[in-house]
Amino acid sequence: MNPERIILPALCMAHSHAFQRAMRGQAQRPPNNSSGHPGSFWSWREQMYALAHSLTPETIYDMSRTAYAELRACGVRTVGEFHYVHHQADGMPYADRTILADAVVRAALDEGLRIALLRVAYERGGAGRSVEGVQHRFCDPSVDAVLRDVDTLRAKYANHDRVRIGVAPHSVRAVSREWLESLSAYANEHDLPLHMHVAEQPREIDQCLKESGRRPLELLADIGALTHRFVAVHATHLKLHEAKLLGDARAFACICPTTERDLGDGLPNIKALREAGVKLCVGVDSHVVSDPLEEIRSLETHERLRSLSRVTFNAGSRSPAEQLWLEGSQMGAMACGFSDEGETISLDPDHLELRLTDPEHRLDAIVFGCTKAFLFSHR
How far apart are CA 107 and CA 85, in angstroms? Predict the structure, then answer.
């Protein structure tokens, strides 16, 4: 046995909906309808809403802890939790308004993870549409109510070195321009991470254009939301000038490849994001698969599929594998508001999946050829 271990920065999943881990395997069949339509993001969302309706403080803790235990077993040490279930099933706040957020934070800490709790703001069911059904669990009557909860969470965890609090407008579908202006101003004033679903679905873009005359990234640029702390989650359907808007702001794009392909979202233009100077990181999102290596490598392999080419970027002094590991670890931690000098993991160079690999190409083999079974060898 080789006594030397491979020491690498610990991994980060910068975008997570931990309770959705309980959906694994439950949304992989055609929806039960008479149209014969094979389903879409929107039919998947109805199944997710049914799960969200059932949550309690106890079950969201249990589901989150399972999701986080699986991530930790795969070498993850930091998670960004995009937390949007806040209230009781009828929409009434709990007596302790942050009880569900606190349950998620406790689950992460109990599994040894650092967590950025990204408190989601959800105002409406869409442009000109009131909320319906389970969406009442997500919504608040005013942006001030959202920010009071953020204040509460910030005060509660102010001295906790493993917890960060951020602000997360859900999307342009769910939040009006007026709320976006207030939320981004608050994040800027307090130097907080600002995460948001951006351009995940073409319908979202069409509705934003109809309401505002602007595409989502254009609208966010207009109101000053794009800064070095802004994280555009998914960024699937951006135009080239929108990638430049993100890059000029030194903002992040958090790509969630296994969820995006599961939902049929499409393939983001990673080459355009890289060339614009956008900082990239990855997320596990719906936990349909918990394999950080698959998220990392897909930044490159999905781009190969989109562009019909191989080795799609030059990272300068770094190899592609080194750049991808950086994006899957330290860049994600930075997007979540943590120092990029996080924890490390130690991996077994004699693992079966690395045999016959020469040391010079060891990281290339890990990133492009190993599975999460290899990550289970960490300590």
Answer: 15
Query: What span, in angstroms and rounded, lies between the C-alpha atoms of 34 and 11?
Result: 44
Q: How far apart are alpha carbons 294 and 354 in whole angstroms?
A: 16
Smallest CA-to-CA distance from 120 within 100, 106, 103 is with 100
* Known active-site residue 378: no
Cβ neighbors of 185 (< 8 A, separation 6 or more) are 224
Q: Please tell me the distance from the alpha carbon of residue 275 to that of residue 284, in angstroms, as a whole number.
A: 24
- The residue among 251, 243, 296 whose CA lies nearest residue 271 is 243
Among residues 140, 285, 291, 348, which one is catalytic?
A: 285
CA geometry: angle 71, 74, 77, nearest 5 deg:
60
Report which secondary-structure segment, H or E, holds 294: helix 292-307
Catalytic member of 234, 237, 287, 302? 234
Grouping H, G, I as helix, E, B as strand and the rest as coil, residue 232 is strand
CA distance 118 to 164: 8
3-state secondary structure of 76: strand
Q: Is it the case that residue 33 has pLDDT exceeding 90?
A: no
- Beta-bridge partners for 164: 116
Element (H, E) at 184: helix 177-190
| pLDDT tens readout for residues 59-85 | 999 999 999 999 999 999 999 999 999
Q: Are 204 and 170 in contact (CB under 8 A)?
A: no
For 225-260, how does the pLDDT look when each residue is reduced to its tens digit (9 = 90+)? 999 999 999 999 999 999 999 999 999 999 999 999
CA-CA distance, 106 to 111, in Å (whole number)?
Answer: 9
Whole-angstrom distance, CA of residue 333 vs CA of residue 298: 19
Please, which residues bridge with residue 78 across strands? 12, 114
AA identity, residue 42: W
Two structure tokens written together for 16: 């997570």
Task: Judge whether 170 counts as a catalytic residue.
Answer: no
Beta-carbon count within 10 A of 133 CB: 14
Task: Give CA–CA dist 243/278, Å, rounded.
Answer: 7
CB count in 10 Å sphere of residue 78? 28
